[in-house]
Amino acid sequence: MSFQFTLQKVMQVREREKNKVQAEYQEAIGHFEKVATQLYELLKSKEDLEELSRNQIATGTSIYKLQQNQTKIMRLQQEILEKQRATQLAREKMTVKEQHLVTKTIEVKKYEKIKQLKQEQYKEEEKRKDLMQMDELSVQLFAKR
């Protein structure tokens, strides 16, 4: 008779749940990276525009161009604030998904450990039964002499 783990179906369900949560976590990481990259690009654009404004002031340019640059900088600043909020939300979501994944991973590990212990108990019991049968057979053979 082979080993049958009584909680095998439960363990499989937990593994599927863990895999689903892991996929959600990977998706959250991807979303966070995308939003963070967009934030970086906005910050870089603002920095470049500020550098351009400084150069224009140093070389002398029209007030109209400086006003245009200032308007663009203010618009970029607003976009940056919105993107910072989005980045923070994405980071929080990613952290929650990570914690959920850790919880599911621990659950699966518990079932794997239980299965391992039950399997070892089964092997020990089989070994004990075999030894008892061999002892019984030895006694029978000895009694026949």
Automatic annotation (TrEMBL):
Keywords: Bacterial flagellum biogenesis, Bacterial flagellum protein export, Cell membrane, Cell projection, Chemotaxis, Cilium, Coiled coil, Flagellum, Membrane, Protein transport, Transport. GO terms for biological process: bacterial-type flagellum organization; bacterial-type flagellum-dependent cell motility; chemotaxis; protein transport. It comes from the Bacteria. The keyword Protein transport applies. The keyword NAD does not apply. InterPro entries: Flag_assembly_chemotaxis_eff (IPR053716), Flagell_FliJ (IPR012823). Its main location: membrane. It is a peripheral membrane protein. Belongs to the FliJ family. This is Flagellar FliJ protein.
